[in-house]
Each structure stands twice: as C-alpha cells, then as structure tokens.
C-alpha cells in the first residue's frame, strides 16, 4: 500500500531522480514511467549494490506477515541487508518504516516485531546520525487486493481523530498500546519523504504522535 504513495510523493517533491527497488514493475500509475526501476531481492544482497550507486537517501517500507521465521526474514534480515548495503555505498540517510509497540500483539507477532527491532538496532549502529525510524501504528488508506480496493480509512480515519488526542490512554496496562492512533498512509509517506530529503529532519525514532505532527508541517 505504501510503496505507490511514497513514490508519487517523492516524484512530486522533485528533489532528484527516484529509484525504486522492487520485485516487480507492474504498477500502472501515471508516475510509474518517471521512475528508474531496479529489480532486486533484499534477501540476495548482491542484487542491491548497483541500485545504490550515487544514492543519497534510502526509504525502506519493506515488511510482511506470515510465519514467525518468514516475518523475521522480511522485516529483519531483508532490511538489515539493505542497511548494510546502504552503509557500504556511502548512503547518508536511511529512513526505515518500522512499527509501533503493540504490547501483547508483539508477542503474537514475534517474528514481525523482533525483525523490526533488529533492523532498528542495525540502523542505529551503522548510521547513528543518518538513521530515521518511523514507528506508525495501524496505517489506513485504500489497500488494493487484486482488483478490489479496501477502504481501510472508513474505520481508520474516525479512530485517528479520536485517539490522537488520547495519548494518556496508551499507558493503561495491557490494552493501552492497542489505543495508539491509526495514521493515514499519505501522512507516513509525507514524513518519510521529508526525513529522506530534508537534512535538518531529526534522526532517531519518530513515534506515531510525531508522525502526525510532522505530517501537518508544510514541507514535502
Ligand atoms: N499496514 C499497516 O497497518 C502497517 C502498520 C505499521 C507498520 N507498517 C509497515 O509499513 C510498511 C509498509 O506497509 P504496507 O502496508 O504498505 O506493506 P505491503 O503493502 O505489504 O508492502 C510491503 C513491501 O515490501 C516489499 N518487499 C517484500 N519482500 C521484499 C524483498 N525480499 N525484497 C524487496 N522488497 C520486498 C514489497 O515489494 P514488492 O511490491 O516489490 O513486492 C512491498 O513494497 C511495512 O514495512 C509494514 O511493516 C504497516
């Protein structure tokens, strides 16, 4: 869901040539022709190197669900490979779309969260001043599943409106983390593009409340 919004936003910001590392180049959107496509698999790090030559900033929205070992591989190993390759090629900024802490859910989706946190650690070690970690909760927008468009914002938008003013509730033991406000996919994409293109954007962890705050600012 996020890849297409991110790419259209990046092209809109007109900072420089946008490159997309992807398993496929099948997107039909009008902007897709302005993108330099690199086909690659983050689980085969050698397939990345050429795509990173001369690159200043990387945004990774790579993630996925499945068995715990698969989730660790996609959210952890694949992204860790991307961080290592970026460091080797002298990339200055690396923006990683991670995920908020959901308490009990973290346990049920161990591979997902352990993978995300392992990537965060790698990023903070390899690029301590160039790593930006976005930690959204549930991301809403329109998700394309085959030919069907799922309007996740029907639920996500009202919840975002209510919960963004109720940070205090997230401190309630056990259920608190489930009350983290959802955030629209365009907000996350806007902040990711700002983080990648604005050298004054702060490095480190950006939680969902900061994502909401940064997304209301004018740039990008
Ligand atoms: N959706 C949510 O509610 C939510 C909440 C918190 C955090 N997040 C995180 O936000 C990010 C974007 O979410 P989303 O909903 O847009 O996810 P998504 O639609 O499942 O997209 C996952 C992305 O990972 C890429 N990918 C998977 N395996 C890869 C590999 N081996 N090599 C290269 N690329 C690979 C896919 O590329 P291809 O398209 O080329 O296959 C796709 O662009 C994810 O990291 C997710 O964990 C999502």
UniProtKB/TrEMBL annotation:
It comes from the Eukaryota. It holds the Pfam family NAD_binding_10. InterPro entries: ComplexI_NDUFA9_subunit, NAD(P)-bd_dom, NAD(P)-bd_dom_sf. GO terms for cellular component: mitochondrion. It comes from Citrus clementina. PANTHER family: NAD(P)-BINDING ROSSMANN-FOLD SUPERFAMILY PROTEIN (PTHR12126:SF8), NADH-UBIQUINONE OXIDOREDUCTASE 39 KDA SUBUNIT-RELATED (PTHR12126). Residues 6-140 form the NAD(P)-binding domain. This is NAD(P)-binding domain-containing protein. GO terms for molecular function: protein-containing complex binding.
